[in-house]
Design brief:
This protein is an alpha+beta fold. It has helices at residues 2-10, 17-178, 185-216, 226-240, 260-277, 335-345, and strands spanning 221-225, 246-250, 255-259, 284-293, 296-303, 350-354, 360-364.
Length: 366
């Protein structure tokens, strides 16, 4: 195009004015076309530059995304490292736990071996105990049979002895009444002592018979009002010796499930002893009440009488055992043995506390 302009410039315009104008128009047309092409090119370049900016932004976004991915990868890598450490720790703990389980297993096996050994020992002990129980049972059966025979013998002997003793006492009384003038004072004293011995022997036999009946009696359990029972016995004691002044303190409403007949025998002995051993007290006092021992009711009879030495408390409930002479207080030594039999038949306990000249307290449970 520049070459064509140059050529046109070399021509003489005056020689061909029309051709020169055409040439100028052609040049301007070409210039317009070139300008349009340049504008298109410029637009294309601008478009390219615009696409390059967008691409740049995309690249920057991609770069940021890659950096974020790399950062996340680093975090994930750290987490994976922590997880790996945790796995290693778990494996170490597992190994330790495995060792502990093996140790426990060995211990269990040892225990099982010891258990077998102990089981054999227990079986041997059980066999020995079974033999001992069988032997004891045979011994108890033999003892029970012997006791029954002894009770029957005692009852028979006691019963058979009463008739001759009554004869001794009766004939002694007849001698004193019918032949008193033929006897001097010493002879009458001898007869009185014979009669007293026969009467005491009769009382002893009666007490033995009561003890035998208590031993052989069957329990007939029922609801018993102990307060009423004690009151009736107290009234009987007052009736027999109305001249005595004795204060009775009987707690009301005391009840128990027991054999009424046997319990009356026990209370008669306990209250009778309290009455007897307060005989030398100007102001005698007898109390019947209840307390609690080892979580169960314990009934008691308390008096302010002669009392006893606790050193001899173990002898109180034995048959024929007496802590006071017959010259001080009469008796046969059978009463407390009878009380113990009654209480034991009820599955209870009986014991006493006291001090010399300070009274005594007898406790029993049912």
């Amino acid at each position: 195009m520049i070459g064509e302009i140059a050529k046109g410039a070399e021509r003489d315009p005056a020689a061909d004015p029309g051709g020169y104008a055409k040439a100028i128009l052609n040049i301007l047309g070409d210039f317009s076309e070139e300008k349009a092409r340049l504008q298109d090119t410029q637009k294309a370049i601008l478009n390219i530059l615009g696409d390059a900016g967008a691409e740049k932004l995309r690249l920057e976004a991609t770069e940021k995304a890659v950096l974020n991915i790399l950062a996340d990868f680093s975090d994930e890598k750290a987490r994976l490292a922590d997880v790996q450490k945790g796995d290693l720790n778990i494996l170490e703990d597992f190994a330790a736990e495995k060792a502990r389980l093996e140790s426990t297993q060995k211990a269990v096996l040892n225990i099982l071996e010891d258990f077998d050994t102990e089981k054999n020992k227990v079986e041997q002990i059980n066999r020995e105990m079974a033999r001992e129980i069988a032997e004891r049972k045979r011994a108890e059966e033999a003892l029970e049979a012997a006791n029954k025979e002894l009770e029957a013998f005692s009852y028979s002997v006691s019963h058979d002895l009463r008739a001759p003793l009554r004869a001794i006492d009766g004939f002694g009384q007849a001698l004193l009444e019918d032949y008193a003038g033929r006897l001097d004072a010493e002879g009458r004293n001898y007869l009185e002592r014979v009669r007293a011995g026969a009467q005491r022997m009769g009382t002893l036999i009666d007490d033995l018979l009561k003890l035998s009946r208590v031993t052989r009696a069957e329990l007939n359990l029922e609801e018993v009002n102990l307060s009423v029972l004690a009151q009736e016995i107290a009234e009987g004691l007052r009736w027999r010796e109305p001249q005595r002044q004795v204060e009775f303190d009987i707690s009301p409403g005391l009840r128990a499930r027991a054999d009424a007949r046997l319990l009356r025998i026990a209370l008669e002995n306990l209250l009778g002893n309290a009455w007897k051993f307060t005989g030398r007290r100007a102001e005698a006092r007898i109390e019947f009440g209840a307390t609690v021992r080892d979580g169960r009711p314990a009934y008691f009879v308390r008096d302010n009488g002669a009392g006893f030495d606790m050193a001899y408390a173990g002898k109180l409930f034995g048959a024929f055992q007496r802590l006071h002479g017959t010259t001080e207080f009469p008796g046969t030594g059978i009463g407390l043995a009878t009380v113990q039999r009654v209480i034991h038949k009820h599955g209870g306990l009986v014991w006493a506390e006291g001090a010399v000249d300070q009274g005594a307290t007898f406790y029993f449970t049912l």
